[in-house]
Write a structure and sequence with these properties.
single chain, 12 helices, 2 strands, two-stranded antiparallel ribbon, mainly alpha
Length: about 280
């Protein structure tokens, strides 16, 4: 994913933020234990959200330890992990490898080629362990690639976002058993994926136009009320995501999850708006 699914620290209680950090550090530890230092490099806030959400739904056993690490060598800190941490670590490798493969396919980037070699062994392990997720993510990315190639003028934001939403439903299919809440979990994942894709397009719009790169919002950019139209698109997806979240029987971490879904996912949008206002003021 893109790092947009974060907590909003100023609106979070200290004890909740410390718990959130402990899950983040716990996921980092699991990545290192399962895949070495190269696994740790792929750590994202998005996957921390997935761990906390799945842990809330499935209430697995937690393991909390105070440890030092490479990033925090001087002082011990809390690291919390659970069964969902191992799943999220594996999905992180799967997505990272797909990202490197996509970059190499599009740009023949030598760095991406090197990463494909570095992560191949780890990727093959995860692929064999989770064939459903591998096939589903691959299928969604292929669909997204086809849409982007046909949509050179940037007019299919909803179709492209929907393809990424489908990827997210596969990613969030942790157990795939007939739990009564599985439909709502997938609904949350789908609309969160649509939101993430739109936010990423909005975040990159100016750079993509300068580079003449693809962006699904390009056709709207020079039109009237661009900001309002993009906000409405993202708000609609965020609202649907929240609607499905409220239907889920999350037994723990509701304050943390609510903070992320109702506020944290808008962190980058708010920073972009602030940067735009500051830029405008400097030009006056």
């Amino acid at each position: 994913m893109f790092g947009y699914v974060q907590i909003r620290k100023p609106e979070c209680r200290i004890k909740d933020y410390e718990k959130y950090k402990s899950y983040y550090c716990g996921l980092c530890r699991v990545l290192n234990d399962r895949f070495g230092t190269t696994g740790r490099v792929t750590l994202t806030y998005d996957m921390t959200f997935l761990v906390i959400l799945l842990d809330s739904l499935y209430s697995s056993d937690h393991r909390t330890e105070r440890r030092r690490c490479v990033m925090h060598p001087a002082k011990k800190h809390k690291e919390t992990s659970c069964a969902a941490s191992e799943y999220a670590a594996d999905m992180n490798i799967l997505l990272s490898y797909a990202h490197f493969a996509d970059d190499y396919r599009d740009e023949k980037d030598p760095k991406s080629a090197a990463c494909l070699r570095i992560y191949r062994k780890s990727f093959l392990r995860v692929r064999d362990r989770y064939p459903y997720q591998y096939k589903g993510i691959t299928r969604a990315l292929k669909k997204l690639d086809e849409i982007e190639k046909k949509d050179s003028e940037g007019r299919e934001i909803k179709k492209a976002a929907a393809a990424f939403g489908e990827l997210m439903t596969v990613l969030f299919s942790y157990r795939r058993k007939a739990e009564p809440f599985l439909h709502d979990l997938r609904g949350l994942a789908y609309h969160l994926g649509c939101f993430i894709y739109m936010m990423d397009a909005y975040d990159d719009i100016e750079d993509d136009i300068k580079k003449d790169s693809y962006n699904p919002l390009k056709s709207l950019y020079n039109g009237k009320d661009f900001e309002e139209k993009v906000y409405e698109l993202m708000y609609d997806e965020a609202a649907k995501c929240a609607w499905y979240y409220e239907k889920l029987p999350c037994t723990e971490h509701r304050d943390i999850l609510g903070n992320i879904i109702y506020a944290g996912i808008w962190n980058r949008y708010d920073r972009i708006q602030k940067e735009g206002r500051e830029k405008h003021e400097r030009c006056i």
